[in-house]
Amino acid sequence: VFARDELEAIATITQRHNLLVISDEVYEHLTYATDHVSIATLPGMWERTITVGSAGKLFGVTGWRVGWAIGPAELIHPTLSAHTRIVFTTNTPLQEGVAFAFVQATSNGFFDSQRAEYERRRDRLMAIFDDVGLPYVVPDGAYYLLVNAAAIKIPDTYEFPDFIKERGPNFKLVYFFIKEFGVSGIPPTEFYSAEHKALANDYIRFAFCKTDEGLEDASKRLQKLKLYLQSSS
Fold this sequence. Notes:
Elements: H1 4-16, E1 21-24, E2 49-54, H2 55-59, E3 67-70, H3 73-86, H4 92-108, H5 110-132, E4 136-137, E5 144-148, H6 162-165, H7 169-181, E6 203-207, H8 212-221
Helix pairs in contact: 5-8
């Protein structure tokens, strides 16, 4: 989660070079012990920012595929034109449902209770990886945990299918977790450009937007991971 001073630094650069900003703020209500600051609220940034939101992330209904873009008319009008020709339409009843959800959420404390539930699940998943001995980045928002699995020693003779081998070591690592422990994650190299993929080779992204039962099952399955830890000595 960007702090205000970080956003101010980005804003300075965008104004200096006359850039536009597309700000992905789909997790605006899922921040832990830190406040969400929209870059569009900073001085001089409203007129150059499109802010993107998602009902799927806010209300846990990703299958609905309902979102929105907020910004000045001169940016939203061409965005709407592109949307009309690419997506064409969306499900109107579900749009009505999202609108009703916003009305309800302002009066029933939904976002506060949701944040508390996700924070509890985050802490449980962190405890699981503390127990098995893998470090991670403590997330300030969203519902993902980035785990450093560099300490895992995959046997040299381990067999990988060709479609995994051709994707590189990060995909091999994730495949190993799936096949040996029955726990799936996302290879974060998918979010990197080709020249920087190696930066994420040792990491796996796990989601904690799961049931308590699912997290406890993962805890049991990951105990086997300790057999593959390399000695720190």
